[in-house]
Amino acid sequence: MKLKITDIDNKAAGEVEIDDAVYADIFGREVRKDILARAVNWQLAKRRAGTHKTKEIGDVQGTTKKPYNQKGTGNARQGSLRSPQFRGGATIFGPVPRSHAHDLPKKVRKLALKTALSAKQAEGKLVIWSGADATGRTKDLSAKLDKLGWKSVLVIDGAEVNEKFALAARNIPGVDVLPQQGANVYDILRRDTLVLTKGAVESLVERLK
Length: 209
Known about the structure:
This protein is of the alpha/beta class. Helices cover 36% and strands 13% of the residues.
């Protein structure tokens, strides 16, 4: 299978050839929303700080004295004013600091990345560049992206991101730049257009085949 390569100015810059079986496995899969959802939930769960906390009875400031006598008052018996039934008291079974991360099998993570790439290819929103080259000026890069009509784009480069391109892109809203080892399902799906450099394609094919 031959995929067309363009440059940043949308001019033809050759082709990259991928074995048909490998192409079908990585870029031609059926889009499974359940697999994508599992991968996105797994990624976002790892990002959660988990620092939420409510006060238990040991955390509430106040006296430990019994409010009134056990018997003879006509009221229900009480042992502490810090109990949850009183205003300013403790919270029962409230959240405590914890990790929200959970496991996801490597096979499922790999399948999800292939599915995300296939989804972009099926939508016609996967573009292959000869390289992520730029002058380092945000104004120049922004003008080129506007000319292409891209408002939301993820650019995945090779093992190392082109420094000038990264500098030019970092102040443009809706544009993300990642090295190929940072390619992930969430970032691919959250941007409208996916751009892979030739080096990124070669690395991803080697990584996922």
